[in-house]
Amino acid sequence: MTTIEVPHSSRSAVLTVSGVIEETPDARSLVFDVPADMKSKFHYKPGQFLTLRIPSDLTGSVARCYSLASSPFTDDAPKVTIKRTADGYGSNWLCDNISVGDQIEVLPPSGVFTPKSLDHDFLLLGAGSGITPVMSILKAALTEGKGRVVLFYANRDENSVIFAAELRELAAKYADRLTIVHWVESIQGLPTAAQIATLAAPFASSEAFMCGPGPFMDTVHEALAQAGMPRTRVHAEIFNSLAGDPFKDVDPEEITDEEAADAATVEVELDGETHNLSWPRKQTLVDVMLSKGLDVPYSCQEGECGSCACTVLEGKVEMDHAGVLDQEDIDNGYILGCQAKPVSDHLKIEF
Protein backbone atom coordinates (compact mmCIF):
# COMPACT_ATOMS: atom_id res chain seq x y z
CA MET A 1 0.00 0.00 0.00
CA THR A 2 1.30 3.44 -0.94
CA THR A 3 1.47 5.86 2.01
CA ILE A 4 2.90 9.39 2.12
CA GLU A 5 4.15 10.97 5.34
CA VAL A 6 3.90 14.67 4.48
CA PRO A 7 3.12 16.69 1.34
CA HIS A 8 6.00 18.20 -0.61
CA SER A 9 4.60 21.74 -0.72
CA SER A 10 2.42 24.10 1.26
CA ARG A 11 -0.22 23.98 -1.49
CA SER A 12 -0.59 20.22 -1.90
CA ALA A 13 -2.41 17.63 0.18
CA VAL A 14 -2.22 13.87 0.63
CA LEU A 15 -5.50 12.20 -0.34
CA THR A 16 -6.56 8.58 0.09
CA VAL A 17 -8.05 6.66 -2.84
CA SER A 18 -11.52 5.51 -1.74
CA GLY A 19 -12.58 3.92 -5.01
CA VAL A 20 -11.14 2.50 -8.22
CA ILE A 21 -13.55 2.08 -11.14
CA GLU A 22 -12.58 0.10 -14.24
CA GLU A 23 -14.32 2.15 -16.94
CA THR A 24 -12.97 0.34 -20.03
CA PRO A 25 -10.09 -2.12 -20.66
CA ASP A 26 -7.67 0.86 -20.83
CA ALA A 27 -9.31 3.49 -18.61
CA ARG A 28 -10.02 3.68 -14.90
CA SER A 29 -11.32 6.28 -12.49
CA LEU A 30 -9.90 7.12 -9.07
CA VAL A 31 -12.19 8.48 -6.36
CA PHE A 32 -10.59 10.48 -3.54
CA ASP A 33 -11.56 10.78 0.09
CA VAL A 34 -11.20 14.44 1.05
CA PRO A 35 -10.94 15.03 4.83
CA ALA A 36 -13.45 17.44 6.32
CA ASP A 37 -10.81 20.08 7.05
CA MET A 38 -9.80 20.13 3.35
CA LYS A 39 -13.28 20.30 1.80
CA SER A 40 -13.04 24.01 1.05
CA LYS A 41 -9.52 23.64 -0.39
CA PHE A 42 -10.75 20.95 -2.79
CA HIS A 43 -14.01 22.58 -3.81
CA TYR A 44 -14.03 22.56 -7.61
CA LYS A 45 -15.92 23.84 -10.63
CA PRO A 46 -17.25 21.59 -13.43
CA GLY A 47 -14.49 20.94 -15.98
CA GLN A 48 -11.50 21.58 -13.71
CA PHE A 49 -8.63 19.16 -13.10
CA LEU A 50 -6.34 17.83 -10.37
CA THR A 51 -2.56 17.62 -10.60
CA LEU A 52 -1.17 14.35 -9.21
CA ARG A 53 2.37 13.67 -8.02
CA ILE A 54 3.41 10.26 -9.38
CA PRO A 55 6.54 8.42 -8.16
CA SER A 56 9.36 7.91 -10.68
CA ASP A 57 12.58 5.92 -10.30
CA LEU A 58 14.30 8.24 -12.78
CA THR A 59 13.32 11.70 -11.53
CA GLY A 60 11.79 11.09 -8.11
CA SER A 61 8.37 12.13 -9.34
CA VAL A 62 6.42 13.45 -12.30
CA ALA A 63 3.40 15.74 -12.23
CA ARG A 64 0.38 14.98 -14.39
CA CYS A 65 -2.97 16.74 -14.77
CA TYR A 66 -6.16 14.67 -14.88
CA SER A 67 -9.63 16.08 -15.41
CA LEU A 68 -12.37 15.66 -12.86
CA ALA A 69 -15.19 13.56 -14.29
CA SER A 70 -17.35 14.09 -11.22
CA SER A 71 -19.76 16.95 -10.69
CA PRO A 72 -19.53 19.11 -7.56
CA PHE A 73 -23.33 19.17 -7.47
CA THR A 74 -24.11 15.45 -7.67
CA ASP A 75 -21.05 13.46 -6.61
CA ASP A 76 -20.00 13.01 -3.00
CA ALA A 77 -16.28 12.80 -3.78
CA PRO A 78 -13.97 14.09 -6.54
CA LYS A 79 -13.17 11.56 -9.27
CA VAL A 80 -10.52 11.71 -11.99
CA THR A 81 -10.38 9.39 -14.99
CA ILE A 82 -7.13 8.11 -16.48
CA LYS A 83 -6.68 6.43 -19.85
CA ARG A 84 -3.55 4.52 -20.75
CA THR A 85 -1.42 6.00 -23.53
CA ALA A 86 1.32 4.17 -25.43
CA ASP A 87 4.22 6.11 -23.89
CA GLY A 88 2.39 7.66 -20.94
CA TYR A 89 4.43 6.96 -17.83
CA GLY A 90 1.98 8.66 -15.48
CA SER A 91 -1.20 7.09 -16.85
CA ASN A 92 0.30 3.61 -17.00
CA TRP A 93 1.72 3.85 -13.48
CA LEU A 94 -1.64 4.90 -12.04
CA CYS A 95 -3.49 2.17 -13.92
CA ASP A 96 -1.01 -0.51 -12.81
CA ASN A 97 -0.26 0.45 -9.22
CA ILE A 98 -3.09 2.29 -7.46
CA SER A 99 -5.60 0.45 -5.29
CA VAL A 100 -8.22 1.47 -2.73
CA GLY A 101 -6.47 2.73 0.40
CA ASP A 102 -3.40 4.07 -1.39
CA GLN A 103 -2.41 7.71 -0.96
CA ILE A 104 -1.54 10.25 -3.63
CA GLU A 105 -0.24 13.80 -3.29
CA VAL A 106 -2.57 16.20 -5.07
CA LEU A 107 -2.70 19.92 -5.81
CA PRO A 108 -6.05 21.73 -5.37
CA PRO A 109 -8.46 21.88 -8.33
CA SER A 110 -7.42 24.20 -11.12
CA GLY A 111 -8.25 25.12 -14.71
CA VAL A 112 -10.44 27.55 -16.63
CA PHE A 113 -12.29 25.00 -18.81
CA THR A 114 -15.48 25.68 -16.91
CA PRO A 115 -18.72 27.53 -17.76
CA LYS A 116 -19.25 30.94 -16.20
CA SER A 117 -22.95 30.10 -16.09
CA LEU A 118 -24.82 26.80 -16.34
CA ASP A 119 -27.99 28.43 -17.68
CA HIS A 120 -26.92 28.23 -21.34
CA ASP A 121 -27.60 25.63 -23.98
CA PHE A 122 -24.42 23.57 -24.40
CA LEU A 123 -22.77 21.81 -27.31
CA LEU A 124 -20.19 19.45 -25.83
CA LEU A 125 -17.65 17.61 -27.97
CA GLY A 126 -15.29 14.94 -26.70
CA ALA A 127 -13.04 12.26 -28.16
CA GLY A 128 -11.60 9.34 -26.22
CA SER A 129 -10.58 10.37 -22.71
CA GLY A 130 -11.48 13.95 -23.64
CA ILE A 131 -14.94 13.02 -22.40
CA THR A 132 -13.71 13.43 -18.81
CA PRO A 133 -14.04 17.21 -18.23
CA VAL A 134 -16.94 17.30 -20.69
CA MET A 135 -18.78 14.76 -18.51
CA SER A 136 -18.33 16.98 -15.47
CA ILE A 137 -19.84 19.94 -17.33
CA LEU A 138 -22.64 17.80 -18.79
CA LYS A 139 -23.80 16.55 -15.39
CA ALA A 140 -23.57 20.01 -13.85
CA ALA A 141 -25.54 21.62 -16.69
CA LEU A 142 -28.30 19.00 -16.47
CA THR A 143 -28.73 19.24 -12.69
CA GLU A 144 -28.13 22.96 -12.13
CA GLY A 145 -29.14 24.50 -15.46
CA LYS A 146 -32.30 24.46 -17.53
CA GLY A 147 -30.95 24.54 -21.09
CA ARG A 148 -30.49 21.83 -23.68
CA VAL A 149 -27.30 19.79 -23.86
CA VAL A 150 -25.97 18.11 -27.00
CA LEU A 151 -23.00 15.74 -26.64
CA PHE A 152 -20.91 14.59 -29.62
CA TYR A 153 -18.66 11.77 -28.44
CA ALA A 154 -16.10 10.12 -30.75
CA ASN A 155 -14.27 6.86 -30.03
CA ARG A 156 -12.19 4.27 -31.87
CA ASP A 157 -14.71 1.48 -31.25
CA GLU A 158 -17.63 0.59 -29.00
CA ASN A 159 -15.37 -0.92 -26.32
CA SER A 160 -13.60 2.43 -25.92
CA VAL A 161 -16.67 4.36 -24.76
CA ILE A 162 -15.92 5.64 -21.26
CA PHE A 163 -18.97 6.24 -19.01
CA ALA A 164 -21.21 4.28 -21.43
CA ALA A 165 -23.64 3.11 -18.73
CA GLU A 166 -23.77 6.50 -16.99
CA LEU A 167 -24.48 8.24 -20.29
CA ARG A 168 -27.34 5.83 -21.02
CA GLU A 169 -28.85 6.59 -17.62
CA LEU A 170 -28.54 10.34 -18.12
CA ALA A 171 -30.05 10.13 -21.62
CA ALA A 172 -33.07 8.33 -20.18
CA LYS A 173 -33.43 10.64 -17.18
CA TYR A 174 -33.10 13.86 -19.20
CA ALA A 175 -34.70 12.68 -22.46
CA ASP A 176 -36.25 16.11 -23.07
CA ARG A 177 -32.96 18.03 -22.65
CA LEU A 178 -30.03 15.73 -23.50
CA THR A 179 -29.09 14.51 -26.97
CA ILE A 180 -26.08 12.18 -27.34
CA VAL A 181 -24.44 11.51 -30.69
CA HIS A 182 -21.91 8.66 -30.60
CA TRP A 183 -19.34 8.57 -33.40
CA VAL A 184 -17.53 5.24 -33.76
CA GLU A 185 -14.41 5.42 -35.91
CA SER A 186 -14.33 1.68 -36.64
CA ILE A 187 -17.76 2.03 -38.25
CA GLN A 188 -17.91 5.61 -39.54
CA GLY A 189 -14.27 6.57 -40.02
CA LEU A 190 -12.79 9.77 -38.63
CA PRO A 191 -15.31 12.62 -38.40
CA THR A 192 -14.70 15.48 -40.84
CA ALA A 193 -15.17 19.17 -40.23
CA ALA A 194 -18.09 19.19 -42.68
CA GLN A 195 -19.85 16.38 -40.82
CA ILE A 196 -19.42 18.02 -37.42
CA ALA A 197 -20.45 21.39 -38.85
CA THR A 198 -23.71 19.86 -40.09
CA LEU A 199 -24.39 18.57 -36.60
CA ALA A 200 -23.37 21.81 -34.90
CA ALA A 201 -25.21 24.28 -37.18
CA PRO A 202 -28.58 24.09 -35.35
CA PHE A 203 -26.80 24.77 -32.07
CA ALA A 204 -24.61 27.71 -33.13
CA SER A 205 -26.08 29.86 -30.34
CA SER A 206 -24.93 27.39 -27.67
CA GLU A 207 -21.76 27.47 -25.58
CA ALA A 208 -19.31 24.92 -27.00
CA PHE A 209 -16.80 22.99 -24.88
CA MET A 210 -14.39 20.51 -26.50
CA CYS A 211 -11.65 18.17 -25.36
CA GLY A 212 -9.72 15.45 -27.16
CA PRO A 213 -6.58 14.73 -29.20
CA GLY A 214 -5.02 17.56 -31.18
CA PRO A 215 -6.29 16.51 -34.64
CA PHE A 216 -9.83 16.17 -33.26
CA MET A 217 -9.66 19.63 -31.70
CA ASP A 218 -8.41 21.15 -34.96
CA THR A 219 -11.29 19.53 -36.85
CA VAL A 220 -13.84 20.77 -34.31
CA HIS A 221 -12.46 24.32 -34.39
CA GLU A 222 -12.85 24.31 -38.19
CA ALA A 223 -16.31 22.77 -37.97
CA LEU A 224 -17.65 25.29 -35.46
CA ALA A 225 -16.31 28.16 -37.56
CA GLN A 226 -18.13 26.69 -40.58
CA ALA A 227 -21.28 26.40 -38.47
CA GLY A 228 -21.11 30.10 -37.66
CA MET A 229 -20.36 29.81 -33.96
CA PRO A 230 -18.52 32.89 -32.62
CA ARG A 231 -15.00 32.17 -31.34
CA THR A 232 -15.92 33.73 -27.99
CA ARG A 233 -18.35 30.86 -27.34
CA VAL A 234 -15.85 28.10 -28.16
CA HIS A 235 -13.84 26.70 -25.24
CA ALA A 236 -11.09 24.11 -25.60
CA GLU A 237 -9.18 22.11 -23.00
CA ILE A 238 -5.56 21.27 -23.84
CA PHE A 239 -3.20 19.21 -21.69
CA ASN A 240 0.55 18.99 -22.12
CA SER A 241 2.98 16.97 -20.01
CA LEU A 242 4.60 19.08 -17.31
CA ALA A 243 8.39 19.20 -17.33
CA GLY A 244 8.84 21.12 -14.10
CA ASP A 245 7.70 20.42 -10.55
CA PRO A 246 4.51 22.28 -9.58
CA PHE A 247 4.72 20.63 -6.13
CA LYS A 248 7.77 22.71 -5.29
CA ASP A 249 7.13 25.91 -3.33
CA VAL A 250 8.10 28.99 -5.33
CA ASP A 251 10.39 31.66 -3.90
CA PRO A 252 10.18 34.83 -6.03
CA GLU A 253 13.47 36.47 -6.97
CA GLU A 254 14.68 39.24 -4.72
CA ILE A 255 14.11 42.73 -6.10
CA THR A 256 16.69 45.51 -5.82
CA ASP A 257 15.73 49.03 -4.74
CA GLU A 258 16.27 50.21 -8.33
CA GLU A 259 13.97 47.49 -9.69
CA ALA A 260 11.34 48.31 -7.07
CA ALA A 261 11.43 51.98 -8.04
CA ASP A 262 10.90 51.08 -11.71
CA ALA A 263 8.06 48.65 -11.00
CA ALA A 264 4.73 48.91 -12.77
CA THR A 265 1.47 49.11 -10.85
CA VAL A 266 -1.34 46.66 -11.47
CA GLU A 267 -4.96 46.49 -10.42
CA VAL A 268 -5.93 42.82 -10.22
CA GLU A 269 -9.49 41.58 -9.86
CA LEU A 270 -9.55 38.10 -8.31
CA ASP A 271 -12.67 36.34 -6.99
CA GLY A 272 -14.59 39.60 -6.98
CA GLU A 273 -11.97 41.51 -4.98
CA THR A 274 -9.61 44.18 -6.30
CA HIS A 275 -5.95 44.28 -5.31
CA ASN A 276 -3.51 47.11 -6.13
CA LEU A 277 0.04 45.78 -6.40
CA SER A 278 3.53 46.87 -7.33
CA TRP A 279 4.75 44.69 -10.22
CA PRO A 280 8.56 44.57 -10.72
CA ARG A 281 9.51 44.22 -14.38
CA LYS A 282 11.40 40.94 -14.04
CA GLN A 283 8.74 39.10 -12.03
CA THR A 284 5.74 37.28 -13.44
CA LEU A 285 2.25 38.19 -12.31
CA VAL A 286 1.90 34.86 -10.50
CA ASP A 287 5.16 35.47 -8.61
CA VAL A 288 3.99 38.92 -7.51
CA MET A 289 0.59 37.70 -6.37
CA LEU A 290 2.08 34.76 -4.46
CA SER A 291 4.52 37.09 -2.72
CA LYS A 292 1.52 39.10 -1.49
CA GLY A 293 -0.21 36.02 -0.12
CA LEU A 294 -2.97 35.98 -2.75
CA ASP A 295 -4.58 32.67 -3.73
CA VAL A 296 -3.80 33.06 -7.43
CA PRO A 297 -4.90 30.12 -9.62
CA TYR A 298 -1.87 28.35 -11.08
CA SER A 299 -0.51 24.86 -11.49
CA CYS A 300 2.44 24.24 -13.81
CA GLN A 301 4.10 27.70 -14.07
CA GLU A 302 5.26 26.62 -17.54
CA GLY A 303 2.40 28.06 -19.59
CA GLU A 304 1.16 24.57 -20.45
CA CYS A 305 -1.98 24.13 -18.33
CA GLY A 306 -3.86 27.42 -18.69
CA SER A 307 -4.80 27.58 -15.01
CA CYS A 308 -3.48 31.13 -14.62
CA ALA A 309 -5.14 32.51 -17.77
CA CYS A 310 -6.52 36.00 -17.22
CA THR A 311 -7.53 39.07 -19.23
CA VAL A 312 -5.66 42.33 -19.69
CA LEU A 313 -8.22 45.13 -19.48
CA GLU A 314 -5.70 47.97 -19.56
CA GLY A 315 -1.98 48.06 -20.38
CA LYS A 316 0.41 45.70 -22.10
CA VAL A 317 2.49 42.70 -21.06
CA GLU A 318 5.09 40.46 -22.66
CA MET A 319 5.15 36.69 -22.25
CA ASP A 320 8.18 34.44 -22.31
CA HIS A 321 6.01 31.61 -23.63
CA ALA A 322 2.43 31.78 -24.94
CA GLY A 323 1.90 28.09 -24.17
CA VAL A 324 -1.70 26.95 -24.54
CA LEU A 325 -2.90 30.30 -25.89
CA ASP A 326 -3.39 30.69 -29.62
CA GLN A 327 -3.08 33.99 -31.47
CA GLU A 328 -6.80 34.62 -31.37
CA ASP A 329 -6.77 34.24 -27.57
CA ILE A 330 -3.91 36.72 -27.33
CA ASP A 331 -5.66 39.16 -29.67
CA ASN A 332 -8.68 38.99 -27.37
CA GLY A 333 -6.56 40.05 -24.39
CA TYR A 334 -5.89 36.70 -22.74
CA ILE A 335 -2.52 36.20 -21.05
CA LEU A 336 -0.90 33.59 -18.82
CA GLY A 337 -0.09 34.99 -15.39
CA CYS A 338 2.87 32.65 -14.95
CA GLN A 339 4.52 33.99 -18.12
CA ALA A 340 3.45 37.64 -18.12
CA LYS A 341 5.76 40.54 -17.25
CA PRO A 342 4.74 44.21 -17.44
CA VAL A 343 5.52 46.51 -20.33
CA SER A 344 3.14 49.35 -19.45
CA ASP A 345 3.57 51.42 -16.29
CA HIS A 346 0.02 50.71 -15.16
CA LEU A 347 -2.14 47.69 -15.89
CA LYS A 348 -5.56 46.34 -15.05
CA ILE A 349 -6.06 42.57 -15.09
CA GLU A 350 -9.03 40.34 -14.39
CA PHE A 351 -9.02 36.64 -13.39
Offer a few descriptive terms.
single chain; 351 residues; Elongation Factor Tu (Ef-tu), domain 3; Rossmann fold; five-stranded parallel sheet; globular; steroid metabolism; FAD
Short summary:
With 351 residues, the chain is of the alpha/beta class. It has nine helices and 18 strands.
Largest sheet: 6 strands, antiparallel
SSE class: alpha/beta
CATH level 3 topology of the largest domain: Rossmann fold
- What is the strand tally? 18
What is the total domain count? 3
Indicate the mean pLDDT.
Answer: 92
Distance between the termini: 40 Å
Portion of residues in beta strands equals 25-35%
Low-confidence segments = none
- Helical fraction: 10-25%
Neighbour order of strands in the largest sheet: 4-3-6-1-2-5
State the helix count. 9
The CATH superfamily of the largest domain is: Nucleotide-binding domain of ferredoxin-NADP reductase (FNR) module
CATH class of the largest domain: Alpha Beta
CATH architecture descriptor name of the largest domain: 3-Layer(aba) Sandwich
What is the N-to-C succession of helices and strands?
Answer: EEEEEHEEHEHEHHEHEHEEHEEHEEE
Radius of gyration: 21 Å
Q: What is the global morphology?
A: globular
